């Protein structure tokens, strides 16, 4: 099988793990930097080039689109979809997961528990609405921030006001969210193909507020409860992601709250904590999508091909 991974660099640790797993299963793999992919539309077909050379077809695409190149990267993902190539996450699903307010609205509308959240364009309005999320401390998140950045904890109204004015003054949209003190149930669940395949509990460093899973926290393998598994699997399904990391809090036993969905989760840290070959599980799912033995999510808008093209040439870049 011929696999294309869209990633800024083949040296990124999670990308390396996917390449290793794919080659171990006997597949050909190419890693393409999405910003070096050129696109051409002529009203009939969707054409793809890489460094001005026409791309040979592949069997499946695994997108690992960085937030820094989100708009261009998702256009590239959609161009592959228009060529009739199965995707391990569609552009629409990735975009949905990266808009924090829209994804929370979607989950809330379908009965998934979420932390109390407010959004407004004016700093004074947001400050006045802090009581609706339980008062300080609160989480302040950029609406489309990255997993490792774009999140801060404000422990006083003064620090909140300064943060709001600075962020909004730069033209960024943000949300203010209930901050739940560490309860021992700060959980990340990896969902692949609609099934929760691994989970870890995050233990923050001593003296640090807990607000993101990738800021030096210690990860421990976790056996999911039925309610945690259901919340994670339903979240990934609603957002439309084949591969997703769902972050949740069990602030009240049996009632988990989803606070983040990530479409390009880091793999090595979870693999080390769980002892599982998560990259292999993801490649296995890609195989099923390519073979047509797994349901593929809704196609992107546009003239998506109804059948796969016949392969006539070798993969080249």
TrEMBL record:
Assigned GO CC terms: cytoplasm
NCBIfam families given in the database record: rimK_fam
Keyword annotations from UniProtKB, A to Z: ATP-binding, Ligase, Magnesium, Manganese, Metal-binding, Nucleotide-binding, Protein biosynthesis
Gene Ontology BP, a term: translation
Lineage: Bacteria, Pseudomonadati, Myxococcota, Myxococcia, Myxococcales
Positions with biased composition (Basic residues): 307-317
GO molecular function: ATP binding; metal ion binding; ribosomal S6-glutamic acid ligase activity
Co-factor(s): Mn(2+); Mg(2+)
Protein name, UniProt field: Alpha-L-glutamate ligase
Domain of life, source organism: Bacteria
UniProt xrefs under Pfam families: RimK (PF08443), Rimk_N (PF18030)
Domain (ATP-grasp) ranges: 104-287
Chain residue ranges for the region called Disordered: 292-317
Keyword Ligase: yes
This protein's record includes keyword Ligase: yes
Listed InterPro entries: ATP-grasp (IPR011761), ATP-grasp_RimK-type (IPR013651), ATP_grasp_subdomain_1 (IPR013815), Rimk_N (IPR041107), Rp_bS6_RimK/Lys_biosynth_LsyX (IPR004666)
Alphabetical list of PANTHER family matching this protein: RIBOSOMAL PROTEIN BS6--L-GLUTAMATE LIGASE (PTHR21621:SF7), RIBOSOMAL PROTEIN S6 MODIFICATION PROTEIN (PTHR21621)
């Amino acid at each position: 099988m011929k696999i294309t991974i869209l990633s800024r660099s083949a040296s990124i640790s999670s990308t390396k793990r996917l390449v290793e797993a794919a080659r171990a299963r006997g597949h050909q793999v190419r890693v393409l930097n999405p910003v070096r992919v050129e696109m051409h539309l002529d009203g009939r077909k969707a054409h793809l080039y890489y460094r001005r050379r026409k791309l040979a077809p592949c069997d499946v695409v695994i997108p690992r689109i960085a937030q820094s190149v989100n708009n261009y990267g998702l256009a590239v993902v959609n161009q592959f979809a228009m060529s009739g190539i199965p995707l391990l996450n569609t552009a629409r699903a990735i975009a949905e997961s990266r808009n924090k307010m829209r994804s929370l609205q979607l989950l809330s509308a379908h009965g998934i528990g979420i932390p109390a959240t407010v959004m407004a364009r004016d700093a004074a309005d947001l400050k006045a609405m802090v009581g609706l999320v339980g008062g300080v401390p609160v989480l302040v998140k950029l609406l489309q921030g990255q997993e490792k950045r774009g999140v801060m904890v404000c422990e006083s109204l003064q620090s909140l006001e300064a943060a709001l004015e600075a962020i909004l003054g730069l033209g960024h949209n943000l949300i203010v969210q209930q901050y739940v003190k560490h309860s021992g149930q700060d959980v990340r669940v990896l969902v692949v193909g609609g099934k929760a395949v691994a989970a870890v509990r995050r233990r923050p460093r001593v003296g640090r507020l807990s607000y993101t899973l990738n800021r030096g926290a210690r990860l421990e393998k976790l056996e999911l409860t039925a309610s945690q598994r259901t919340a994670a699997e339903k979240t990934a399904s609603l957002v439309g992601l084949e591969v997703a990391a769902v972050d949740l809090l069990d602030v009240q036993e049996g009632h988990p709250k989803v606070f983040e969905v990530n479409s390009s989760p880091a793999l090595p840290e979870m693999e080390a904590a769980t002892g599982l070959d998560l990259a292999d599980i993801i490649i296995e799912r890609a195989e099923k999508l390519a073979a047509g033995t797994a349901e593929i999510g809704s196609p992107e808008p546009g003239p998506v091909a109804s059948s796969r093209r016949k392969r006539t040439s070798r993969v080249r870049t």
